[in-house]
Amino acid sequence: MPRDGAPMGDLMMRSTDIYDQHETAFARVSAFVILRNGERVATVAIKFPTDGAGRLYAYVHWLGVAMARGHANGYGYDKRSAAVANAARKIEWPIDTGSGSDAFAAAAMADGGDDWTRAVEKAGFTVLQAV
């Protein structure tokens, strides 16, 4: 039985399984939404390499500021956090007027062994994984 619950032969059954298409399209991607006080303030997308040692890309976007792309290579360390830190260091951060950009920037740029999501959460943000 397909994942959408339609029995075999049902008119709703598709020749191409949309769930398989989605899994294939996003197999090497993770996307996160960053909230502060329940409001979206940033997004982070991570594109994984085809092999474990290849280049991993992170895209960091604080709303209202140009998005930046960072990367990390190799293996044996947390490439996700390293790539997020690399991208965050490229952003021209605005003067914080209560938006929390300074706290997010400091947490995202920290590359001291903490998973980037935990560092951002410790800084007072909610991190939701969308994909």
Sum this structure up briefly.
By secondary structure, this protein is α+β, with helices and mostly antiparallel strands. It has four helices and five strands. A five-stranded antiparallel beta sheet has the order 4-3-2-1-5.
How many beta strands in the DSSP annotation? Answer: 5
Q: What share of residues is helical?
A: 25-40%
Low-confidence stretches: none
Could you give the order of strands across the largest sheet?
4-3-2-1-5
Structural class: alpha+beta
The H-and-E topology, N to C, reads as: HEEEEHHHE
N- and C-termini, Cα separation: 24 Å
Largest sheet: 5 strands, antiparallel
Number of helices: 4
> What overall geometry do the principal axes of the alpha carbons give?
globular
Radius of gyration: 18 Å
User: What is the average per-residue confidence, as pLDDT, rounded to a whole number?
Assistant: 88
Proportion of residues in β-strands = 25-35%
Protein described:
This protein has helices spanning 18-25, 79-90, 101-109, 116-122, and strands at 29-36, 39-47, 56-62, 68-72, 126-129. It is α+β, with helices and mostly antiparallel strands and 131 residues long. Helix 3 packs antiparallel against helix 4 (116-122). The two termini are 24 Å apart. The model has no long low-confidence stretch (mean pLDDT 88).
